[in-house]
Amino acid sequence: MSDLLLVTPPFTQLNTPYPATAYLKGFLKTKEISNFQVDLGIEVILSLFSSAGLRQIFDFAIERESILSDNALRIYTLREDYIQTIDEVVLFLQGNNQTFARQICTDNFLPQANRLLSIQDTDWAFGSMGIQDHAKHIATLYLEDLSDFIVECVDDQFGFSRYAERLGRSANSFDELYDTLKEKNSFIDDITLAILKSHLNATQPKLICFSVPFPGNLYSAFRCAKYIQSNYPDIKVAMGGGFPNTELRSVSDVRVFEFFDFITLDDGELPIELLASNVLDPTDSNSNIGFFKRTFLIENGEVIYNNFSIRQDYKQVDLGTPDYSDLLLDKYISVIEVANPMHSLWSDGRWNKLTMAHGCYWGKCTFCDVSLDYIGKYEPVTASMLVDRMEEMIEQTGENGFHFVDEAAPPALMRAVAIEIVRRKLTLTWWTNIRFEKSFNRDLCLLLKASGCIAVSGGLEVASDRLLDLIQKGVTVEQVAQVTRNFTEAGVMVHAYLMYGYPTQTIQETVDSLEIVRQLIENGVIQSGFWHQFALTAHSPVGLSPKDYGIEPHYADITFANNDMAFTDSTGIDHEIFSEGLRKSLFNYMHGICFEYDLQEWFDFEIPQTSIAHDYIINCIESEPFPQVKSSSRIVWLGNMPTVYIYQGESRGLQVEYMQMTFHDKRSSHEISMVSDKGQWLIDNLEDLKIDEGSIMTYGQLKSSYEESLDDFTLFWFGDSMTAIREIGLLVL
């Protein structure tokens, strides 16, 4: 039994749990409030995609006497082949029976419908990624074929990472969702509610808290809430998470509260603590009763916003470590939709989720919800505490992969975390979201790589300096090219978020943005990307001051969701027509092909020729200012100590003692010679410059140390020998 049940409704991710309930569970643990967490999404998926589940799906489809398309008819005809293979395929995608990969890759083993039949020769891609990933890709398309059948014949709202998403998007009125909830349960609803019922009976909670991160989780949350209110009327039901935080800040329709007793906004820790206090012991005379934090509820037949508690939100240091217990961590499914190593990170592998900082340290981008708490309230965690939490989570989950889900991870904190990871000699893998700012120089990227960073994702957005300035992104295209080069050369993959249709964007700027993206990928400095069309949100600077950006919003009466808004751009351009061409071109570029195509070939309407020079990005990449080293910069040695050989040589007619140092790294050896006194000084200091020694030495201190007994340090530092040593592990941070 548990007092609280924390629920993520279907569907978010197949490969790893969405972290919101794990964050709340970690916090509730510090308050000794009993709770249990459930990810209904993965449990429903596992029920559907099983031999028993597929048999039910095929029986249900034929009972509906649907008129099947040729593709659906083929799948139905091959139903016994699907039923026979599904359990083993899912087991493989869960990380079991890895030898099964060879069978999956056999051309005639799995039944094939449209997705698999249209697969191109991918040996070129998976020659580098390996047979396991090749098999995952084939198995993913196999599941997507079955998903197509479900959408056509069973439930047209189904999607692996979203369900009935249309009902939650820009739903200014509750009417459509309310009417849908009056209808008979769908096939998937029945499976979801049966699983929910088993958890309710096992935990017998007094309060159920649904975390709803996206529009694609909203319908299921309401369907589950309706079931609870009808069958377990004594249980109180609350909703929080990303969707209400951004969309339900103006909710006023009392019908919403036929399903939920409470809706909370922004950081969930204090609101859920006060909910628990009010629900678990409502007769308690303590000051919490009747006092809530950022909570909508019904009083006297009206929706009220109760923010009467004067308690302050908890600091990040007091929230505890995210707790993934209760979740079926060994049951998540790794899939690979696109044959691109960087792109696969979102769907492949079980990642522990953490944040380096609450909010965004930049907080200026005009398309972003910077006025809301989750962006605007910036509060970092110390590096030592963050790595403490990482170690706790590794011990708890058995996984040493981390995805930091920051809006934009702060470079200074990333550096501190990397140093702490290296100092503790931890072996782990991590990736995060960043801004492509100039702080990410070559040496910082090498340090991040040494700490286990394998990838970063960041916003290139419109790839136009004029529009980047209008967005207040704080970067230029040239800077993005140089930063992505630094990451790529350090061995860190790069993903770019791309945008089109920003207010006042011209057709020429859209075409030029595509050309810049083409050159960035062709030159190997970004590995993957994703285009999305600009969406006007109510809480962004553009939404708050639309006239400043040349657009006219179409305002609607708000009684339910309020975020995305329709608008008219002063340019009159229909940016939607670019969607397919941008998507198709990027898909091919990410697969390393079609760079030679004229941009016109991606569109079925006439576009202007690009105004971007064919060598624009390569010139940006090769443009490198002379390195400036601050006296306060920290100097770090990541390499091993060298073996030493002393020999006599001649310089300007004089006999001189030289030191030959051989540095061994994981891949090769490097020989560097210098006069013995300078070599000995270097060796003495390299030992102290190791991170695990715990000492901190700046460039200024190193310079002073050298010049106390030797000559001019600047000439030595920029000489050939030190330049070579900087190439093999001496970093300026």
Care to describe what's here?
By secondary structure, this protein is α/β, with parallel strands linked by helices. The protein is built from 29 helices and 24 strands. The protein has a seven-stranded mixed sheet with strand order 2-1-3-4-5-6-7, sandwiched between helices. A six-stranded parallel sheet has the order 8-11-12-13-14-15. Strand 6 (295-299) and strand 7 form a beta hairpin. The protein is globular, with a radius of gyration of 29 Å. The two termini are 52 Å apart.
What features would you highlight for this structure?
single chain, 733 residues, alpha/beta, seven-stranded mixed β-sheet, globular
Q: Count helical runs.
A: 29
List segments where confidence is low: pLDDT < 50 over at least 5 consecutive residues.
none
Helix/sheet category = alpha/beta
Strand order of the largest sheet: 2-1-3-4-5-6-7
Helix content: 40-55%
Strand content: 15-25%
- Overall pLDDT score: 91
Q: What is the CA-atom radius of gyration, in angstroms? A: 29 Å
Number of strands: 24
User: What separation lies between the terminal Cα atoms?
Assistant: 52 Å
| Shape category | globular
Largest sheet, in brief, is: 7 strands, mixed
How is this structure best summarized?
Helix content is 41%, strand content 16%. The chain is an alpha/beta fold.
Secondary structure layout plus pairing:
Layout (H helix, E strand, L loop, with lengths): L3 E5 L11 H11 L4 E5 H9 L2 H13 L6 H8 L1 H15 L6 H5 L9 H4 L5 H7 L1 H23 L11 H4 L6 H8 L4 H17 L3 E5 L3 H17 L4 E5 L1 H6 L14 E3 L4 H12 L14 E5 L2 E5 L45 E3 L2 E2 L14 H4 L2 E2 L2 H15 L3 E4 L6 H13 L5 E6 L7 H9 L2 E9 L3 H7 L5 H14 L2 E8 L6 H16 L5 E6 L2 E2 L3 H4 L6 E3 L10 E2 L1 E3 L9 H12 L25 H7 L12 E3 L5 E9 L2 E11 L4 E7 H14 L9 H11 L3 H5 L2 H8 L2 E3 L1
Parallel strand pairs: 1-2, 1-3, 3-4, 4-5, 8-11, 11-12, 12-13, 13-14, 14-15
Antiparallel strand pairs: 5-6, 6-7, 9-10, 16-18, 17-19, 20-24, 21-22, 22-23
Helix pairs in contact: 2-12, 3-5, 4-9, 8-9, 12-13, 17-18, 18-19, 19-21, 21-25, 22-24
